[in-house]
From TrEMBL:
Protein name: Aldehyde dehydrogenase family 3 member B1-like protein
Presence of the UniProt keyword Oxidoreductase in the record: yes
Organism: Callorhinchus milii (Ghost shark)
GO biological process, one term: aldehyde metabolic process
A Pfam cross-reference name: Aldedh
Family: Belongs to the aldehyde dehydrogenase family.
GO molecular function, one term: aldehyde dehydrogenase (NAD+) activity
């Protein structure tokens, strides 16, 4: 069994255990992600400079602080997002209790972009964590130093039974897309977006492009 089968099975078991659903778990993982950003600023700036020649100021503002603020916003609103939402009841259901309870989808695949390789990879992850999902993160191979950094850092800060990072190029991404996911989040070109959507259609997987 390859890492793909083994890793996906492990993450699905992590989701099936129910651990990602609790408010405590989501809060803990988001807090850990903020800690990752705060404790590794120099490494992140170095990686982005090697990949894209971004200066430290640009990286701090558009990558680190932007992503950190997204996580803080999620933390501040998490309880409200998870509470049942009241709905107007039709006459025939006046005696019933009616509400909307948002539920996590399951295993999410996040395919990041090269031009903002931290922000456009971790902000969808923040959404996945906030919604109670597990996730596989596929950073862009065009920003290899940032990709390698995410491969090293994310397992140190996030629950390895619920989150994983897979490096690689088009071949690895294409193979990954043959597996069924519960949601795919992709940022990139229209041409690749069509391929992602076509692969997702095989499993009727909802996609955000």
């Amino acid at each position: 069994m390859s890492w793909y089968e083994d890793g996906i099975e492990r993450l699905r078991k992590g989701f099936s255990s129910g651990r990602t659903r609790s408010l405590e778990f989501r809060t803990s993982e988001l807090t850990s992600l903020i800690r990752l950003l705060s404790e590794n600023e120099d490494f992140i700036c170095e990686a982005l400079h090697k990949d894209l020649r971004k200066c430290k100021f640009e990286t701090m503002v558009s990558e680190i602080k932007f992503t950190k603020n997204e996580a803080i916003y999620a933390l501040n609103n998490l309880r409200g997002w998870t509470e049942p939402e009241s709905v107007v009841k039709p006459f025939a259901m006046k005696l019933d209790q009616c509400f909307i309870q948002k539920q996590p989808l399951g295993l999410v695949l996040i395919i990041g972009a090269w031009n903002y390789p931290l922000q456009l990879t971790l902000t969808p992850l923040i959404g996945a964590i906030s919604a109670g999902n597990c996730a596989i993160i596929k950073p862009s191979e065009i920003s290899p130093h940032t990709s390698d950094l995410l491969v090293r850092l994310l397992p140190k800060y996030l629950d390895k039974e619920c989150f994983a990072v897979i490096p690689g190029g088009p071949d690895e991404t294409s193979y990954l897309l043959t597996f069924p996911f519960d949601k795919i989040f992709f940022t990139g070109s229209p041409a690749i977006g069509r391929l992602v959507l076509k692969a997702a259609a095989e499993h009727l997987t909802p996609v955000t492009l």
